[in-house]
Amino acid sequence: MNNKEKILNKVDDISEYIKRQEEYKNIIKIKDKMKSNNKINNYIDTIKKLQKEYIKTKDENIKKELDKNIKELNDIPLYNEYNRNLEIINEKIEYINDYINEFFDDVFNS
């Protein structure tokens, strides 16, 4: 097995590790629930629309409406749980990424 194959195998191992994490499994389940939640989807659509409008206009009234909708979306327990799990997984991925970067820095700078 050459080095490229070893690296690809390790990447697969990392991917599988992430998929085995409880938070990742929760994200998948919650995403499915959110797909059928009209309230959440309406907030997301409204927020996207308001973000585009605000970027174009920099209108403070649009910004206030945007902030209000974001707060209301974040107050929905299902969406909040999704974000909490997503943050945990992202932290784990960031840790793995840092470790990989340090490894390659050591390999190429030694």
What does this structure look like?
The structure is a single chain. The protein is mainly α. The chain has a domain at 32-95. 91% of the residues lie in helices and 0% in strands. It is built from five helices and no strands. It starts with a helix and ends with a helix. The model has no long low-confidence stretch (mean pLDDT 93).
Identify the overall geometry.
elongated
Distance between the termini: 24 Å
- Per DSSP E runs of 2 or more residues, the count of β-strands stands at 0
Ranges where pLDDT stays below 50 over 5 or more residues in a row are none
N-to-C SSE series?
Answer: HHHHH
Helix-strand makeup class? mainly alpha
C-alpha-based Rg, rounded: 20 Å
Question: How many H/I helices?
Answer: 5
Describe the largest sheet: none
Mean pLDDT: 93
Q: Work out the oligomeric state of the chains in this entry.
A: single chain
Portion of residues in beta strands equals under 5%
Helix content: over 70%
Write the layout of secondary structure elements.
Elements: H1 3-20, H2 22-35, H3 38-57, H4 60-74, H5 77-109
Attribute tags:
mainly alpha, 110 residues
Question: Concise description?
Answer:
The chain is built from 5 helices and no strands. The chain is mostly helical. The longest helix is centred in the C-terminal third of the chain and has 33 residues, at 77-109.
